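User: Hey, my collaborator sent me this sequence without any context and asked if I could get a structure. I don't really work with proteins. Can you help?
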Amino acid sequence: MSFPWGGNLAWAYQSFAYAGGRTLREVGTRYVAADSAGSVVWTYPITRPDAGNTVTTHSGMTLTDASGNGAKKWSFLTTQNAGASWQVGLVSDFRQLAAANSANAITHDTYTWSQDAAGNPYISAKTSVSDEGTGNQQSALTTQTLDQYGNATQAVVYPYNYTARSKEARGRYSKPHPRTTASAANTPAPTTARSSAGKTAKKSSTPAPR
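Assistant: No problem. I've predicted the 3D structure and written it out in structure-token form, which is a compact way to encode the shape of the chain:
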């Protein structure tokens, strides 16, 4: 594909044989030429870990930067690790790596899938880990619930490095009323008193007009 002001993208294809006798075409390499003359072409290899005739879907894919420094890696749910048949082929995690063979990721996102009322799959939770495997590692969790139309009915962002205890504490957190400290301090607190019938009644917290 050529661009109006020069430069182009190109792809090299290859065939892959899946289990069950299916053979499909897939991209094996991506090329980027930054100038119209094509004097400099950057090559981005795309690799997959699966052997031919052994899988029904790919279990992963890695895109390596042309410099050799940096890579993006996706993992997919397969018949071996998916919790249900509708999950097969969905992405399970995404890593940004310093190199294609790096053990730990710069950022590592893990996804949990659910189904809405209409049976459509969607990502219901994502855990993001930064600086994986280092002393600076941080983990953050976000969750959401969608209705059958794709609208979010609930979304929750948890604090970094949450645990069951911090999650429970967050659930008990009550958001303050959007008033200034001064106005809140000047508002009388509600008090209780006994009515003539012996029942507890609550007095108004609003001062009587003067």
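In plain terms: The longest strand covers residues 22-33. You can pass these tokens on to your collaborator as they are.
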